[in-house]
Amino acid sequence: MSLSFTKMHGLGNDFVVIDARQNDPALATDTIRHLCDRRFGIGCDQLVLLTVPTLDGADVHVRFFNPDGSEAGACGNASRCVAKFVGGTPTLQTAAGLLPTARDGDLFTIDMGVPRLDWQDVPLSQACDTLHLPLHDATACSMGNPHATIFGDASRAEALGAGLEQDALFPERANIGFAQILSPTHMRLRVWERGAGLTLACGSGACAAVVNAVRRGLTERTCTVTMDGGDLKITWRADGHVLMTGPAVTVFHGTTA
């Protein structure tokens, strides 16, 4: 089956975008794994499938798939890429809800919605204070997908990420962020992503890290998050919505064999 695709990235977090609004190919899990493979396929951190929206107010339905074939509820960097791909200021329909977008030159802002802070919403496997988990004193929340942030040394991501992603406390696995607070308006972050491993940037992880840092009293509500691939600006507004601003880049267009 031949597929047209566009390769894009947000701060080095790269995606294969397939526009299926005219013809949905109904990709099998094995096909998704093959397309994401960096040696035998196109290669990406996530495959992004665009289909016709089913909710009023949405311009496009967006689904995010990890390299292992599992589906993610949200992806901030990919959402910026979709906004650029579609053009204008589209509202994205995702598993995490409707995500409005805005654009200022080469920068795209996604309203990532309101974080969910209850242990059942993350979700966790047992009742816990999500501000202080019994696991490396992490702080947890959901940004449409489960996140836990560990404050201290960001270099621990390689050593701890894989094991913590699959810890029994996270029944749906989790994205694990390792954040170092540099100032009240600046942090360093590395994220071990669920189903993808360590990536150059994670948009929803940056949102979660700022939310969790504010809850801990470590940063202000607007913060620059520096990741391996570059910087995002995150604002947790007073109304509860989290705004993420950063670039999106088109790399090339192609067709599979």
UniProtKB/TrEMBL annotation:
MF terms (GO), sorted A to Z: diaminopimelate epimerase activity
Listed InterPro entries: DAP_epimerase_AS, DAP_epimerase_DapF
Pfam families: DAP_epimerase
Keyword Isomerase in annotation: yes
Keywords carried by this UniProt record: Amino-acid biosynthesis, Cytoplasm, Isomerase, Lysine biosynthesis
Active site residues according to the UniProt entry: C75 (proton donor), C75, C202 (proton acceptor)
Keyword check for RNA-binding: no
Residues that hold substrate according to the record: N13, Q46, N66, G76, N77, N145, N175, E193, R194, G203, S204
UniProt similarity note: Belongs to the diaminopimelate epimerase family.
Role this protein plays: Catalyzes the stereoinversion of LL-2,6-diaminopimelate (L,L-DAP) to meso-diaminopimelate (meso-DAP), a precursor of L-lysine and an essential component of the bacterial peptidoglycan.
UniProt protein name: Diaminopimelate epimerase
Gene source species: Gluconobacter cadivus
Species classification: Bacteria, Pseudomonadati, Pseudomonadota, Alphaproteobacteria, Acetobacterales
Gene symbol of the encoding locus: dapF
